[in-house]
Each structure stands twice: as C-alpha cells, then as structure tokens.
Amino acid sequence: MDKPLSYSAYRDYHVCPHYYKLKRVDKQPSGKDTSALAVGTILDEAVGALLTGEEYDIDKAITTASMRDLGFYLDDFDADLINMDELMVLAKELGWKGDDLEGAIKSFLKEQDNLSTKQQELIQLAVWGCLRVKIHAMYDSFVKWIYPQIDKVHDIQTHLDNGAIHGYLDFTATLKDGRKVLFDLKTSKMPYATDAVKHSAQLCLYAAMHDYEYAGYIVLSKTLRKNKHKTCECGYETSGGNRKKCPDCGSQLSVTMNPASYSQILVEPVPKWSKDLTIKAMTDTIKCIDDKCFPRNLTACKWMFGKPCPYIDKCWRNK
After folding, report:
1. Counting beta carbons within 10 angstroms of the beta carbon of residue 317, is it exposed (0 to 12), middle (13 to 18) or buried (19 or more)?
2. CB-based contacts of 102: which residues, under 8 Å, 6+ apart?
3. What is the pTM of this model?
4. 203: phi > 0 → left, psi -120 to 50 → alpha, else beta; which?
5. What is the DSSP letter of 304?
6. What is the pLDDT of residue 319?
7. For residue 108, what are the CA distances in angstroms to 15, 63, 90, 111, 115?
8. What does pLDDT average to in each consecutive run of 10 residues of the chain (319 residues)?
9. Which of 7, 30, 60, 147 is most buried when burial is the number of CB atoms within 10 A of its CB?
10. Helix (H) or strand (E) run with residue 275 in it
11. pLDDT at 78
12. Residue 134 CA from chain centroid, whole number
C-alpha cells in the first residue's frame, strides 16, 4: 500500500472490496457527504474545545455546515423541533403552494436526487432547524452527564501511525474512579449495547496502537426526549402524551418543550488477545489490498451504510 490503512478503509474493504477499490484506489466520486458526518464533526470539535478550555461557537459551525451540499436522512427531520408556522412562511416565499408542509418535506427527503433548487433550499432550512436543536441537546448532555466524570484529559484528536496502520482517536482521559481510558465519541439514534466496547474492532485497534488498558464509548443520542409540557388557560396541565385539547374546557392546549439527549459512557478493559486480533485483521487486509484482491460483495449493493452503494449502477448496469 502507498499509505497506512485506516480503520474506516478497513471497514470499507470488508463491506465490499470492489467498493474499496473504486473509492480509495481509483478515486472515483462516491456521492455527497452526509448530515451524520457533519453533525459528528461539529460535536467532536465542540467537545474537544470544552476539554481543552478553548472557545467554540457551535451555532457558527452549524451555519457553516448548513451551506454545504449534503445528503440527509429521513429521521433528521422532526416537525416538533422547529416552528412549522415560520417554516410555512418561508416555504410560501420559495413558491410552495401546498398545505401539508410536514408531509412534503418528508417526501422531498426520500427523493433528494430529483429536487428543484427551491425544494432543496426548503429541506435545508427544515432539516438544519432540527439538527441545530439536536446538536445543542447532545452537547448539553455531554456537559451535564459525561464531563463531570472526567478527572483529567490527556490526548485530544491524536494521530496514531505505526507505518502500516493509522487512525485518529478522539481523546484519552482519567476518570474520577482512576481508570485511564481511550475514548471514542459517537452519535447514535439507538443506545449502544452494554458489551459494545468488547466487540469494537476500532477501539481494540486504537488501544493496541496507543497501549491502553481501558477503552470506552461515549454515545450521544440523536433521538431526543422532548419533555413536552401542556397547559390550558383554565388551569389544566399535563406532560407528554398526544392530547391536543383540554379535557376540562375543550380549548387548544399550549405546548412547551425542553428537548434533551440521553448519553452513555461505556468502559471496558481491552485484553491482549483482542489487541492482537485487530492488528492481525488489519495486516491480513493490507496483504489482500497489496495482492490487488478486490472481489465484489453483491449482497451489499442495496444496503451499504444505510443506503444503496453509490457505485451500484457501475456494477449492475455498466454505467
């Protein structure tokens, strides 16, 4: 190989070796970056700044990211998290003439490759309005629940490179209980399994390269607890639920929300055999790449990282 193998490249190869070749050897375009990458980058930078005592403007970073041409996911949008009346005004200014704006945005998100410029602008406004709320909630969750457990920070965004393998670890820190841990910061729709660290090839690899006894995930949930509070002028109030009208007087209930993210911290010791296993898996993969072994994994064509492979037509239609 002409450069060290990263864990993400290793993952690409084992999802489909031919996908790896097209993307990383032939350097063929693989489509847009996604909102998930942008959100993850902003949170990495914000948490890194917090841990080093530096200033970081999350809103400025979000505004900058919102100007990029990104691919979105359907669950990036949640009508509860933004002011739909204000969005309706903007939609009308862009020429939209329908009544079901929420349904229209969800429809546009399913057909992102076939939208007009104004439709693209509308989903940018809608999705980034939601993502702004989610990013702030995830960052606040880290500050409230994770940061107090950290006693001392050591390395931030350290580049690991042994000549054959390389990667970037998010940070290492000593916890209040005395454990010195190599951490990977993740965002996810669902909580991680309690044994996720034990079976993480990436964490075991980094623990081997950085010679750490403990590794851990910090997981910030993209699925927010909305904490709805509903009130009526007659004095009735309730929390959560789908009720829209007051059961006492029949008036429309006023709704306020305080969206919050759930966070996890998972830490486990990494045994030597796990470290040896991941190093061996990486070196075996490097040999396959050096031998130019790039077969197609046709079972991955329709479902690669949550969507069809960007090169699906190249293989199946010779385009």
Report:
1. exposed
2. 79, 84
3. 0.90
4. alpha
5. B
6. 67
7. 29, 21, 16, 5, 7
8. 92 97 93 91 96 96 95 93 93 90 94 89 95 97 97 94 94 97 96 95 96 97 92 87 86 88 97 96 97 96 87 87
9. 7
10. helix 272-290
11. 95
12. 11
Give which of 9, 28, 6 is closest to 17, Cα–Cα.
9
Residue 147 near residue 139, CB atoms below 8 Å: no
Q: Identify whether the C-beta of residue 182 lies closer than 8 Å to the C-beta of residue 197.
A: no
Q: Which helix (H) or strand (E) holds 109?
A: helix 101-110
- Which amino acid is residue 314, in one-letter code? K
Q: What pLDDT is attached to residue 31?
A: 80
Phi–psi pair at 80, nearest 5 degrees: -65, -20
Residue 103 is predicted with a pLDDT of 95
| CB 272 within 8 Å of CB 239 | no
Amino acid at 84: M
β-partners of residue 260 are: 225
Contact 215, 222 (CB under 8 A): no
What domains are defined for the chain? 5-224+259-292 (3.90.320)
Tell me how far apart the alpha carbons of residues 218 and 127 are, in angstroms, rounded to a whole number: 25
Run of H or E including 249 = none
**Amino acid 1: pLDDT:** 75
Would you list the DSSP string of 72-95? --GGG--GGGS-HHHHHHHHHHTT
Question: Which residues, at least 6 apart from 49, have a Cβ–Cβ distance to it below 8 Å?
Answer: 55, 56
Instruction: Report pLDDT for 306.
Output: 76
Report the distance separating Cα 133 and Cα 143, nearest Å: 15
Q: How far is Cα 155 from Cα 282, in angstroms, rounded to an integer?
A: 24
